[in-house]
Amino acid sequence: MLRFRLAPDNVKLGFMQLRSVTYPLSALLSILSVVAFLTLGLNYGIDFAGGTLMELRAKTGQADLVSLRALGDKLQLGEVEVQAFGENQDVTVRVRLQPGGDAAQQEIVQKIRVAVGDNYEFRRVEVVGPRVSGELVQSGTLGVVLSILAVLTYLWFRYEWQLAVAAVIATMHDLLLTMGFFAITRLEFNITSIAAILTIVGLSLNETVVILDRIREMLRKYKRMPMPEIIDTSINAVLSRTIMTSTTTLMALAALAFFGGHVIQSFSLAMMFGMVIGAYSSIFICSPILIYLGAPSQAEPEKNGN
Amino acid sequence: MFRFPRWKIASIIAMTVLAFLVIVPSFLAKDVREGIAKKLPSWAPFYSVVLGLDLQGGAHILLEVDAADVARTQVEALRDDVRRILREERIRITGGIGGSGRTVQVRVPDAADRQKAIARLRMQAQPGGVNALGATTPPTFEVRDTADGLVQLTLTDPAVLERVRRAVDQTIEVIRRRVDALGTTEPNIQRQGANRVLVQVPGLEDTNRLKELLGTTARLEFRLVADPGYNPGDIDMLNEYDREGNPTASYPVEKRVMVQGEDLTDAQPGFDQRSGEPVVNFRFNLRGGQRFGEVTSANVGKPFAIVLDNKVISAPRILSPITGGSGQISGRFTVQQANDLSVLLRAGALPAKLTIVEERTVGPGLGQDSIDAGRTAAYVAATLVVTYMLTTYGIFGLFANIALLVHIVMVFAGLVLLQATLTLPGIAGIVLTIGMAVDANVLIYERIREEGRLGRSIISALDAGFNRAFSTIVDSQSTTMVVAIILYFLGSGPVRGFAVSLALGIVTTIVTAVTMTRLMIALWYRWSRPTRIPI
Predict the structure, then answer these.
(1) Alpha-carbon torsion (B80, B86, B87, B92), positive or negative
(2) Which residues of A touch B483 (CB under 8 A)?
(3) Extended beta strands in chain A, E state
(4) Is the ipTM of this complex over 0.85?
(5) In this structure, which topology does domain B6-57+364-528 adopt according to CATH?
(6) pTM recorded for the entire structure
(7) A19-44+133-293: CATH homologous superfamily?
């Protein structure tokens, strides 16, 4: 049977030496992310910004983008964002939050329905009022904060402080870069994006845990081995697994991004990015930190025999 | 690792078979499924997976009961009470009785009268009085005697809150009756938070009518048109509108409500016998009928305004006393309008104004497209992963793939048994777990390879692979589990669906990727007695 492996056996790559490249790179990317986040900001979807989103399908031929965009001036709704997708038969039309509270938002859809007449089918209508979007911002922020706290607690109980700190830094790194990704790509930032970010935290930690577990195991086994060597050996040992799993997960996510429809496309793309960053950071960011923090003075007695 | 007690093997097989059986109904056509379900005992879990509104199409509307409106109604009622009490006690006041915000105020110039009025009003504030245990119920309003003879009555916070709570309860009842009139299946109407109501109606195409039904308070009032010289403070100027919503006439209508919509027992659309235009025929209950008879007898020749939500529908002149307890509303309706108005009148008025604060509507076409897209993505993902595992691990890859198939079936079965809602992000969650589920297998296999390279015998390499990988698997999955739990509690609707799929995926991974694979490898080992590790 044909066999192929992405990671060759018995690799001995010097990951620790690469830190002179990866640390500046990550620092650069992190700064870039912060700058992008502060200057560009996120492209908030209606979940967080409030407003009206409609998905229309032209009943015949292609959607007339120009006349749809002109609706903003015609109906005095301010700027109307129109985006075509698929074969330009479908468009999303987004109207910003109108002044005048919750009741004012309700009239928009009706106005547009009247204006476009019978030419379009309304496939989806979402209206989020100013108060609900405010609450969603709150619960979204709370979700991210809670997850980080939960993760910290978990790591606190699970690992010696050096390993925990390393894992936290790696997770923050991933979080930061993912926000930067959202800011730079202008992908819409919605409730599902929060779900994506939290899942990225989970997956990135998953990678980190696998490597840290191995480092700890090595620390117990080879008490005299210098730290860089321990880390290198551990990474090389789990490398093929990290590559395998990342590949299968990326395959699944790529399938979602290409075939899963536009509604979850930004979700899938963000997850793909997060997955790659998570694998990268667990190898190149998390582990080398241990060199600076030093080895845990004494590894705890092992739980599972051996 | 290779000693598998028979019961363990049996239970793994039983679980797998059960999972397959549970998902069968989801793949049957609806009528076939319901036909079979009738023949089975009621406890049999023979039902389909629940699709979220984003997949089956439908409307999700979050409404808010206007607390200020509730307070306003309460102040109106208090004002009527004050007027009645003062009249009963023959207390003279100067000026009218003012009401604004949460306060009603009235000027009683005579000091003795004022003391009497205050004592009487304070009694009114505690309708429960002093109960058997000597405790007093909290007052619904506070009475203050300000300087210069002004008596102020202010509604208390608990009283307003209690009224809002009751208003939400009533609102839910009224909405249920209205939505039922639309004839849709399985609407979901529930309270959310202190003053919100969530209405979910699956499979609804035209949400305009729903929104109109939800947005109308439908407070029907019969009020006399005021004579000239009537106290201006007790008059509302109300407009009559044409079909396009332009005002056509304006009437000075008494604030005093003679008969209310709540005294209606029935309302049906019909046609006027003479003009043939659509009308609504209504019937009063005993109290309403009597009152209507009294008022129409006493005011023959005067115009009587029929007011719906502060809009005059029509103001016909009373030609003769109407004592039969039934009547007719005509107001240049279309057939549809007459229909809707009678639905609204039958369902009763909302206790307060409702505002739509969030709306998410998905048409059935888009829902089906999403299902199809999700399905395609799942097939593509599964094909890629299965091929990849097979080419990388050979026979062991095959075991992992079988486990993967069972895993997906079990996630589905879990969704069906929990009757959890499958949403589009939920499908994404399942597809994601296709990628992640094999992670456990990969961890185990890579460990086996590694132990094998260290020169261990086959059996001990296999054993070490499973044992050592296990704690890492539990560790790494638990981080994702933590996230899934948080998402479940914070998210709503679609995101919650994602959390459920993710969490189910993690649980079943442990069962399938660890236990099932181990069983398959054990059986394979016994059967083929390999001399080297095939990965």
Answers:
(1) negative
(2) 147, 150, 198-199, 201-202
(3) 43-44, 51-58, 80-85, 90-95, 120-128, 188-189
(4) yes
(5) Multidrug efflux transporter AcrB transmembrane fold (1.20.1640)
(6) 0.81
(7) Multidrug efflux transporter AcrB transmembrane domain (1.20.1640.10)
